[in-house]
C-alpha cells in the first residue's frame, strides 16, 4: 500500500511537472500575443508574470503602437523639454509612447497634441488664443474668463457683436488617417456659486436667427462646409466642422478652419469659446451636434 501511494505521488508530480504554464512561454511568443492588444491591455498583462513583463517593454512591440511618423512627433512635441530627456526618448520606445500619450503643448502653449492611448491616433486641441477672432482684444465685446472647464484654463466670452468671425490654422505632419474637426462652444457663461456650477444665459441671443457657417480646407486640396444653429444653453458642445484625409504622413499639411455669422441685420452674444478639437478616426468618441 505504501509503495502504491508513493508511485501515485510520483505520477502526480510528473504529471504536474509536465504541464506548461504561461510562465513557460518564450518571450517572443508573449510579445506576439501583446502585439494584438492595445496599450492599456498590454500594461495590464505585463502584471501577469515575468515573461509578459519583459515582453511588454520590447522596443519592437511599442514601435508597432507608435504613429508611423513618431520621430517628427518627438522633435515637435518633446524637443523643447531639454537635453536630459534625449537619452530616454531615443532609446526606449515604450517611454516615447508614454510621453506622447500625455498632453504636450507647442506653438507658445496655444496648441496641445497627444496620442490617444487606446487607438494610437493623434489628437489636437487649439486654444482660442491661437486663433484670429474679430474684436477679441476689445473688452466692449469680449471677456477673457479663467475657468477649470478648459484645458487652457481660460475661455473667450462674447457679450455682443454684429460681425462674428473666427479663423485658425494648423500645419503638421499628420500620421495617415481620417481626421475630424470640431469647435468646442457653449451658449451662456458658466460660473460657480456655493460650490455649484451655474450658467448665466442672460446675454444669449441671435444664434437662433441665422445659422453659423463652418469651413475647413487642407493644403492637399480637400474642403468641407457645414452650417447649423447653435443650441443647448449651459452645455459644452462639439460642433462638427468637417473631415480631412491624410495619405502621406511624411509631408507637412496645413489645415485652415473658420466659424462665421456675419449677417449684420442682428446682433449675437452670450457665447463661450474654448477651442478647436481635431480627432483621428477611431479615437475617443466626440458627440456631433450637426
Automatic annotation (TrEMBL):
List, alphabetically, the InterPro entries matched: F-box-like_dom_sf, F-box_dom, PP2-like
Query: Residues in domain F-box?
Result: 19-65
Checking SMART domains in the record gives:
FBOX (SM00256)
Annotated SUPFAM superfamilies? F-box domain (SSF81383)
Highest taxon above the source species: Eukaryota
Q: What is this protein called?
A: Phloem protein 2-like
